[in-house]
Amino acid sequence: MYLRLPKDLPGAREEAGVTFLGVDIGTSSSKGVLVEHDGTVLTSAVREHQVQRPVPGHVEMDAEIWWARFVAITRDLLDTADPGEVEAVGVSGMGPCVLLTDAAGTPVRPAILYGVDTRATVQIARLEAELGRVEVLHRCGSVLSTQAVGPKIAWVAEHEPAVAARARRLFTASSFLVHRLTGEYVLDHHTASQAVPLYDSLAQDWYAPWAKHVAPGIELPPLRWPGEIAGRVTRSASAATGLPAELPVITGTVDAWSEAVSVGAQETDDLMLMYGTTMFLINTVPERLLVPELWSTVGALPGTRNLAGGMATSGAITEWLRTLFGSPDYPTLLAEADAAGPGARGLLMLPYFAGERTPVADPDARGMIAGLTLEHTRGDLYRAALEATAFGVRHNVDAMRAAGGDVRRIVAVGGGTQGGLWTRIVSDVTGLEQEVPSVTIGASYGAAFLAAGAVSDVSITTWNPVRERIAPDAGVADHYAELYGLYLRLYPATLDVAHTLARHRRDSPAD
Q1: Nearest alpha-carbon partner for 391 in 438, 354, 342, 437
Q2: What does the alpha-carbon distance between residue 318 and residue 336 come to, in Å, rounded to a whole number?
Q3: Nearest CA to 258 among 115, 93, 400?
Q4: C-alpha torsion 58→63→68→71, nearest 10
Q5: Which residues, 6+ apart, have CB-to-CB distance to 115 below 8 Å?
Q6: Cβ neighbours for 127, distance < 8 A, ≥ 6 positions apart
Q7: Which pTM was predicted?
Q8: Residue 225 · residue 188 · CB < 8 Å
Q9: Rounded mean pLDDT of 2-16?
Q10: CA atoms of 299 and 183, how far apart (whole Å)
Q11: Distance between CA atoms of residues 225 and 405, nearest Å
Q12: How many CA atoms lie within 13 A of 174 on its CB side?
């Protein structure tokens, strides 16, 4: 596949030495890369951080951490390069988040994170009754869910009225970085398309009647495409970061869509599969497809449409298990999980440890482990977790096909592609081949590519060719098909128990 982005600026240099900087603000860490014009990664940097969970169902983060991580990562990268050779800056971030600020862009409360934060269930139900479930789906492309921005703004208005009274602007992770770098207040079309019910997916603009109803007093930002230049580095941002003043900064977008750009998964019937703290799936479709179980969004590139799905936990489960096991190294755990074999010696897990986003759309779903015996080992449990996420991927792919999309090519990206076992299990469970590109750094690399595309002609095929193809093992297809059938039965069979336990947890005193 050949992906070319237009030149926005004349006279862009293309000789050796030109570099592009990309930074992504993730859920558990932030990553940055410095990339040469041909796509070679010169250096990378990572800074870890943690979200805050003040009460069950609430997942927040101080936006000042986003900026602090950006500054630290940028300075780490520039320590090994000449800042004067950087031609453009790209940003991306987890999302859609709800960061409310005053008119000057100063946060009035911590940012409320994307679909992993499940606080606004009451507001979802109220807005659905007021606006109409079908009407929201047809205008916005998605129904109201824990992923939607509007209900979380409504939650703040109802539970923190003094805070809401000070709120004048709405940011997400990437747009907050852009504001700090350039002083500009903008948002990309893709992120806006997840700001349900504020954005009209057909008109590709804010829908004023619902925006005024859900977010009164909030000045919504002008909309641009992720690869468009939002502004230029200010003198104050230059002093903080070490980046040259007047350097162009792109608008950026949500991390998963930046990751899809980083591997060239933009053609119709492509599926980008992001292996991370959460699992994300983006299917490029020929037209706007509407189905309540998935998110229909505007794509990262003009003219593209997506069906998207997101699992609330994936790598978060394996990291949780590793911590419970005393933090052994990943190669050891992967070897033990590999030895457990398909089916994890009789274990079956539901990966709903933080509720579930698609296609279940149930914030009160809970993780389950069926089949446990005293003979099971940590390797069996780890294998069951990897298989659970694979079953979740298959569930989402089935939902995409049922909605009218198709998946002919999977491109895998993210930290979970390392080691080989997880990707092999996903191919075996889904029966689909996966392509693993040469560079799997992900969103920060996609942000750098979009930055490069804003000032020069670049091709993602040249930047990031395919390194490996993972074919499914036909010998385990029947076994996994049987387990997948059990997986689909396990959720409805335990639904009442899970919901009752979730209610008890909400009603219990905060830890």
Answers
A1: 342
A2: 13
A3: 93
A4: 130
A5: 145, 146, 147, 310, 312, 357
A6: 136, 144, 150, 151, 154, 197, 214
A7: 0.85
A8: yes
A9: 38
A10: 25
A11: 24
A12: 37
3-state secondary structure of 467: strand
C-alpha distance from residue 211 to each of 127, 450, 488 (Å): 12, 29, 37
Span 213-266, pLDDT tens digits = 999 999 999 999 999 999 999 999 999 999 999 999 999 999 999 999 999 998
The encoded tokens of residue 415 equal: 């930290």
Closest CA to 401 of 273, 266, 294: 294
- In order of 51, 122, 173, 353, 389, the CA distances from 497 in angstroms are 28, 21, 36, 14, 21
- Let me know: does 407 contact 395? Beta carbons within 8 Å: no
Q: Which residues contact 136 (CB under 8 A, 6 or more apart)?
A: 127, 128, 142, 143, 144, 196, 197
> Alpha-carbon distance 317 to 351, whole Å?
8
Q: Which tokens in the block code for residue 25?
A: 């603000």
Helix and strand tally (H, E) in the chain? 17, 24
DSSP 371-426: S--TT--HHHHHHHHHHHHHHHHHHHHHHHHHTT---SEEEEESGGGTTSHHHHHH
Condensed to tens digits (0 to 9), the pLDDT of residues 442-488 reads 899 999 999 999 999 999 999 999 999 999 999 999 999 999 999 99
Q: In what order do the strands lie in the sheet with 295-298?
A: 295-298, 305-311, 279-285, 270-275, 409-413, 434-437, 466-470
Other beta carbons within 10 angstroms of residue 372's beta carbon come to 14
Angle, CA 97 vertex, CA 226 and CA 21 arms, to 5°: 40
Strand (E) positions, 8-110?
A: 19-25, 29-36, 41-48, 60-61, 86-93, 99-101
